[in-house]
UniProtKB/TrEMBL annotation:
It comes from Bradyrhizobium huanghuaihaiense. This is Uncharacterized protein.
Length: 58
């Protein structure tokens, strides 16, 4: 089982920004996508850590 520090962020898909969307809105969409990717990374690292700890106990 790889160490949780070796996990990397998933590619964050570009938000759907169409012409006419304000730059502030586009920035907020990108920021939300980055936060979601970081949340998924934390969850993944936690899952890997839990699996490694359970394997050590057995």
């Amino acid at each position: 089982m790889p160490h949780e520090s070796t996990l990397v962020l998933d590619e964050v898909p570009a938000p759907k920004v169409v012409p006419g969307v304000d730059a502030r809105v586009a920035w907020k969409l990108e920021e939300a996508a980055r936060k979601e990717a970081n949340k998924r990374l934390r969850i993944s690292r936690n899952n890997v850590r839990n699996v490694r700890l359970k394997a050590q106990v057995k």
